[in-house]
Amino acid sequence: MAAFGEVTTGRKWRWGLLDAAVIAFALFPVLWIVSLSFKTPATIADGNFIPREWTLENYQNIFETALFTRSLINSIGIALISTAIAVVLGMMAAYAVARLDFPGKRALIGVSLLIAMFPQISLVTPLFELWRDLRLFDTWPGLILPYITFALPLAIYTQSAFFRQIPWDLEKAAKMDGATQAQAFRRVIAPLAAPGVVTTAILVFIFCWNDFLFAVSLTSTEASRTAPVALSFFTGDSQFEDPTGSISAAAVVITIPIIIFVLLFQRRIVSGLTSGAVKG
Amino acid sequence: MTAPSSQPGAEAVRVQTGGARRRRPARSEGAAAERRLGWLLCAPAAVVMVAVTGYPILYSVWLSLQRYDLRFPDDREFVGLANYGTVLSNEFWWNAFFVTMLITVVSVAIEFVLGFGLALVMHRTLVGRGLVRTSALIPYGIVTVVAAFSWRYAWTPGTGYLANLFTPEQAPLTDRASALAIIILAEVWKTTPFMALLLMAGLALVPEDLLKAAAVDGAGAWQRFVSVMLPVMKPAILVALLFRTLDAFRIFDNIFILTGGANDTSSVSMLTYTNLIQGLNLGIGSTLSVLIFITVAIIAFLFVKLFGAAAPGSTQEGAR
């Protein structure tokens, strides 16, 4: 184990090589699709990792059609609304779980655990039928509702883990110094809770952005089809055109938000995932 | 769905002591207010979760007892358990079940080994720790469909770097065995980082002193791993394995993009989707839904039984 030994140059090199292998494995498919997205139709099948001729044509094509831009708007809207609602509802429940004693608390934790493990396909058939009756099929709320449901366990677990670490005595101290309850919460507790809330929002957004099963089953038109689903139905401008370039370009576009989140919030994503899952 | 029940006696005691410690001197009025506030705050989340999962699953049971095909809505009729007989005697179901189980077991096993290695690398590495952690998060964050397209193109002759390199003569995605291997590869790539992060959190719980003491006592690296690290990490390992197993059992996106279920590579989720969206058969679709639900419940039950009381959530109470 490295921690016990001396830090030698050889040791550093070995770790460096191991790190490089990990990074290469993690990035390989991403780089491959980026490469495809910049290739011209003539060179797309040449199998080269680095494009011989670079082009932006694929990106121009996907943004020319309403097909992709519309689905991108759907994805952004649905994911943002679901995230906002799930984080707020989750925050309320997480505060109660972390700070209050009430009968039924364990039941709530148990139910959210069950939902986290729920086979999502088991809901698709009944929701397909119910949503058609309730006129929610192929609408934004028809996707937002299941997203909130499956994001809530994550939101509750992660936020309650963060809330438990807040020194709540500070609130009392602020009140002793003359702050009202609202002031104490806003000035002292809210800033301490904010990182946990942001972390949760990112995790929930990634979850909604990623979903394919609900989106492909509970939508049927451009009205609510999300970007990953639109991507899977791409056929190119005409049936003789190979859609590989367009699909790759669209895939890169929907990957960009995730890459930005990962680069900016790497630490928070790690702590959110680990605290939510392990410290329960 | 049995949720752990709360014990009224224990709750009352804790309300008293907990209340005295954190809030105001224990008063029964205060405890009642706290209880009301607790319920009030949890109600919206609980209502959404139960309404969107509880009711549909019951409705699904009801639908599964009917002959109900949207293409022939007039033939709708109550048929009892006939749908279950149809599904359970059908080779498509058993094939999909076998494929799903195979993918689940193989991918979780590989992920566990790779994830443990990755967790150790992320935990211990001497150079570029931030860079390793950041790049390991990319597979976790990336849209599964995007990754699946990348793997599909990589293994398609012509567009494929990997196909050209390893299998220049064949199209590996059109052959059942190699298609399943690629599906597992895509699944492992996507979710190993998640496993690694959970295990890394478990590694952080292993006291350094304990490892040092074991080293001083002459325990080798492997011995330290087996008799010090693994026992301390047991809860984290259980959580990681349980979540990943149930998650792998739900596999859908990867198969949808990579093979579309062709050549007997459908998972149970894929089979349900095909029956529902292409077949519009609500009766059979619901039967499949219920069967998958029951399977997942059995898997979860076995896990908790096998690993004993280290189930997630059971450590909840002491952690306040």
TrEMBL record, chain A:
One of its GO terms (cellular component) is plasma membrane. The keyword Transferase does not apply. Residues 72-265 form the ABC transmembrane type-1 domain. The keyword Cell cycle does not apply. One of its GO terms (biological process) is transmembrane transport. This is Carbohydrate ABC transporter permease. Its main location: membrane. Keywords: Cell membrane, Membrane, Transmembrane, Transmembrane helix, Transport. The lineage of its organism: Bacteria, Bacillati, Actinomycetota, Actinomycetes, Micromonosporales. Pfam families: BPD_transp_1. It comes from Natronosporangium hydrolyticum. Belongs to the binding-protein-dependent transport system permease family. The chain crosses the membrane at residues 15-34, 72-95, 107-128, 140-163, 184-207, 247-265. InterPro entries: BP-dep_ABC_trans_perm, MetI-like, MetI-like_sf. PANTHER family: INNER MEMBRANE ABC TRANSPORTER PERMEASE PROTEIN YCJP, MALTOSE TRANSPORT SYSTEM PERMEASE-RELATED. It is a multi-pass membrane protein. It is found in: Cell membrane.
TrEMBL record, chain B:
Signal peptide: none annotated. Keywords: Membrane, Transmembrane, Transmembrane helix, Transport. It is a multi-pass membrane protein. GO terms for biological process: transmembrane transport. Residues 1-29 are annotated as: Disordered. InterPro entries: MetI-like, MetI-like_sf, Sugar_ABC_transporter. The chain crosses the membrane at residues 37-62, 92-122, 134-153, 221-243, 282-304. SUPFAM superfamilies: MetI-like. One of its GO terms (cellular component) is plasma membrane. Residues 97-303 form the ABC transmembrane type-1 domain. The keyword Transport applies. It is found in: Cell membrane; Membrane. Belongs to the binding-protein-dependent transport system permease family. This is Sugar ABC transporter permease.
